[in-house]
Amino acid sequence: MLASIKALPEQVRQYLIVTGNYWVFTLTDGALRMLVVLHFHQLGYSPLAIAMLFLFYEIFGVVTNLVGGYLGARLGLNRTMNLGLGMQVIALAMLLVPTTMLTIAWVMAAQGLSGIAKDLNKMSAKSSIKLLVADGEQEKLYVWVARLTGSKNALKGAGFFLGGALLSLFGFTGAIGSMAGILILVWLFSMVKLKKDLGKAKSKPKFSEIFSKSRSINILSAARLFLFAARDVWFVVALPVYLASQFGWDHYYVGGFLALWVIAYGWIQTLAPRITGARSAKVPDGRSALLWASLLTAIPAAIALFMSVSPSPQLVLMSGLLLFGALFAINSSLHSYLIVSYASDDGVSLDVGFYYMANAMGRLLGTVLSGWVYQVAGLEACLWISSAFLAMTAVISVYLPKRGAVLE
């Protein structure tokens, strides 16, 4: 196996290192999120207070994606990747203080640092793939993006389960310490093996160029914002707290269910090219994004409606979430392909960073609403808002370019 890896082109080997870093980081990031939600729910924090713990995580994600794309184009994706890994180690170390020091402000600061680290890693990995596929091989680009995105989400799901399991087995401090140790080893390996010129733009971009001038990318970014707000408005805080408080599930069950949901979601993302026709030389365009967003729009509202009248709301919720996850996975995979396809070759991280800035804004909006709306109106209200956001995604997608027409 080692011989076959050495036989690969150097650029591919570099990308494998970036992807491996991203995978390990994603595993610890998913585990950390579940640890924080469950641990502070156990301590008696309200849903809104738990949501506020992730406020800086999402806010700094917005800024990081915008500035990180610029840094990746000027300095190289290796530096942004290694910087993200190092910052995540520091964020984990901040949570190793005695329990009496784990105030809301301190945890928010640690989560803010973690948010910067995560988005530096995501931007680096997603930008790198553009450099490996020729312009005329759009089917291959779609397949590669789908595999990367799907595998990442599968590992994030595994991280949810890992977080719940580690919390039950070793407690909050033991779980955080073990993850920090593993990540330090990955960071040291990456510092030695990643080359300095990966993803560096040929012409040094100006800071003013962090805002996209492409109409296609601006429209897609707006659609992405509402797409991810529609997911996180019920997924981040409302759902795990609802499962624990209303159904009486322990950490293993909550972490395990969310893990399986995200793993299945990631697996479907890898199949998106087959489902949407890329295997038959049909790559998605704006019309495809509109179709799949429209199909998803009614699902959260239907879940909320049937939960309110069904004698078995648990069965309705579980079934509805499976259907939502499948359709959302295809939507997300389509968007991930379209941004890489629309992005320019030179300084690709600028366009990708701007797009994921919008993604982070959607997560921020969804996270805050997830805690507040659940606290004042319950899970059903979160689901109704989710459908409203998805309707906005569909309306915006009307303006995405059709096949072969990328609007500048």
List the helices and strands and how they pair.
Elements: H1 2-6, H2 10-42, H3 47-53, H4 55-75, H5 77-94, H6 104-128, H7 138-193, H8 215-235, H9 238-245, H10 251-276, H11 286-309, H12 313-342, H13 348-377, H14 379-397
Structural notes for this entry:
There is one protein chain. The protein is mainly α and 408 residues long. Helices cover 79% and strands 0% of the residues. The chain has 14 helices and no strands. The protein is globular and about 55 Å long. It starts with a helix and ends in an 11-residue tail after the last helix. The mean pLDDT is 82.
Please supply descriptive tags for the structure shown above.
408 residues; mainly alpha; 14 helices; globular
Largest sheet: none
**Radius of gyration from the CA trace?**
20 Å
Uncertain runs with pLDDT below 50, 5 residues or more?
A: none
The percent of residues in helical segments reads over 70%
Order of helices and strands: HHHHHHHHHHHHHH
Number of strands: 0
- % residues in beta strands: under 5%
Between the first and last Cα atoms, what is the distance in angstroms? Answer: 44 Å
Summarize the structure.
It is built from 14 helices and no strands.
